[in-house]
Amino acid sequence: MSIEVSNESGMDISEPELISVARFVIARMDVHPAAELSMVLVDSATMADLHVRWMDLPGPTDVMSFPMDELEPGGRPDSPEPGPSMLGDIVLCPSFAADQADKAGHSLAHELALLTVHGVLHLLGYDHAEPEEEKEMFGLQNSLLEEWYEDLRRIDREAALAERDQKLLGKTGFVDGVDR
């Protein structure tokens, strides 16, 4: 899976974290592992321009998604497996997201992770124009975000256990479980 991030926002953003959450969601949604995604982080003026040009709405917004290939999560069990494709582009506006994060009482990193999940779901055809669509998309968005956080916690626990095990093995004279 190829995920490229271009930070043109002028803000210091953790690109590996954005890649991590995007990769997690793409995998959970059964998208072909060779799919490609592009993420661009822009300033408010650039986002406002995109928002007017593509949505005919004034001012900046938090996230916009531009799908490339028609993809659906999962797919029918009797259909041939889809090949790799270009999911599309997600455009994030960190400065706009920072204001939203402040209002919501959480970190910018959390807000950008949430918006990344949101953007990927839009690329996969989810929408929230109608109440039922919104309920489905936001429920899935929140579930995927929580699963990603749980996955990060699991990885941290495993790393801590591995480090502890190495220390214990070192004290006993065993290294990597091999008797010297």
Account of the 3D structure:
The chain is an alpha/beta fold and 180 residues long. It has one domain (2-127): Collagenase (Catalytic Domain). It has five helices and four strands, in the order βαβαββααα. Strand 1, helix 1 and strand 2 (36-41) form a beta-alpha-beta unit. It is globular, with a radius of gyration of 20 Å. The model is unreliable at 75-79 (pLDDT under 50).
Give a short overview.
The protein contains five helices and four strands, in the order βαβαββααα.
Please give the radius of gyration in angstroms. 20 Å
Number of strands: 4
- N-to-C order of helices and strands: EHEHEEHHH
- SS-based class: alpha/beta
Task: Describe how the helices and strands are arranged.
Elements (H helix, E strand, L loop, with lengths): L1 E6 L7 H14 L7 E6 L2 H12 L7 E5 L18 E7 L1 H11 L3 H16 L7 H42 L8
Parallel strand pairs: 1-2, 2-4
Antiparallel strand pairs: 3-4
Describe the structure using short key phrases.
single chain, 180 residues, alpha/beta, Collagenase (Catalytic Domain), four-stranded mixed β-sheet, 5 helices, 4 strands, 13% strand, globular, MetalPrtase_cat_dom_sf_prd, nuclease, zinc, YbeY_CS, YbeY
